[in-house]
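ARCHIVE CARD
SHELF: 3
SLOT: left
DATA:
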Amino acid sequence: MLCFVAHPDDIDFGAAGTIATWTASGVDVQYCIMTDGDAGGFSDEHRPDIVERRRQEQRSAAGLVGVETVHFLGHRDGYLEPTEELVASVVELIRRERPQIVLSMHPERNWERIQKSHPDHLACGEAVTRAIYPAVENQYAFPELAAKGLDAYRVPWLWFFGGPTQLENHFVDVTEHVEDKMRALHFHASQHPDIDRMDRAVRAFLSANAERGGLRQGRSAEVFQVVPVNTDATIAGF
């Protein structure tokens, strides 16, 4: 599983419980963080080292849920665009790692809670979508990558989080890993001036997800839009 997000902490809000479930069963999960997070935080005293601080927060959070590899692309926070350069970076990483599932922030805006749809989030989702189809699987796209031995690859599944509620189609019961998710989020201390309030809000969202997904009372869930890209249900070559 290869996860693309815009900022350090995005993946922990959206999918850390699911990732903890997967790594516990032996799945290899890697993260790719597109921006350097320099526009985040709430304290002036953090400004001189905010980029390295946020990278270390993300590494610590990743390690807690069993993720060893975190890639940082280093784009400027708040200015991310789905450029040819960014798409090429995504294509290169996917072709190198050849994941069964690519997980990404959603490219469509969520009007119910616009905070899910930071412009960088949308740019991340759009770049990943453009990369997965058709560039990753087109042997003639980005020929310089093929020249480096990174051949075309067909991604089976694309999972989105943070998109419009009406597009959600897959609920993952993360009840057994809620505390792992919360501990991962607590590593991002530079982003949360009120940790307790953040904790209560995230737990409430997880409970609401579970209720919406039809899980029994007391359960917690993360929610996604799962898109088949190259499966038995899809047709390639058209």
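SLOT: right
DATA:
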Amino acid sequence: MPALTVPDLTVLPRIPAPGLGDVVRPVRTVTTAPSGYEGEGFPVRRAFAGVDLRDLDPFIHMDQMGEVEYAPGEPKGTPWHPHRGFETVTYIIDGVFDHHDSHGGGGSITDGDTQWMTAGSGLLHIETPPEWLVQKGGLFHGVQLWVNLPRAEKLVTPRYQDLRAGRLGTLTTDDAGVLVRVIAGDVAGHPGPGSTHTPITLAHATLAPGARLELPWNVDFNALVYVLNGNGTVGVEQRPVSTGQLAVLGAGDFVTVQASTRQDSRTPELDVLVLGGRPIREPVAWAGPFVMNTKAEVMQAYEDFQKGRMGQIPAVHGAPTELQEG
């Protein structure tokens, strides 16, 4: 798992140990993501399936894309489609993904890069593997997270952020057994590059076998731990977790994750996403590519899309020109 790697963790800033009186966040639930297909048929794990939206708030949806080894001609993406009312965060661990949208955003991301698209008032976008990857095949693995926008910012002007791996905040633990990459928010005073409308923290941690992560966490945020690969435990209860499982945590001052001493030979380390944010606590009306506060607002979004008010497909060399609603 390349993502962003650091040859010598001992040179990184250290995460401070929990203080006297700090409380480990307990594990409330552990769920296993079902598998499915997205877009034109690339495999995903639906990380939040079966979890109450109130426990996820301010997040809406998350897919783990792959991990899959494509043969030549197999890589797939999504056709052009609309979004309104939230932000999409696409983090690529292995492989390459291209993005284009009707508001002028676009770029290609690879190991450890992130595309952060604020759909806001609405736009069209497309995500595809580059043509050379379609022809050649290869490993593909990433995550897409949907972050809700509060009512007052549902219709903000769309925005695109290209976050390169080299800009991520990088930290380690006292024993240098864990690499923490801060994508957005703040961990122990070290910020990530992602600029967010809704206050959140998003980090990717890689734990060596037997290593322990004790991560300070904003007491006003919820906290989720999703296992990208490997196995270990979460919380003071040392609740077992493994690939494709999501732990929803309760209140406390820090998050704790420990890697099992023995890992699968294919995935020799434990990789987790740790994420949380300040709950918005507003009604959610969600239908396909639109996340609003009321059903009427969703219906208005569909009407605006059908009447071309979310933009037109730009002329992008090599990109498909088909359009779908969700």
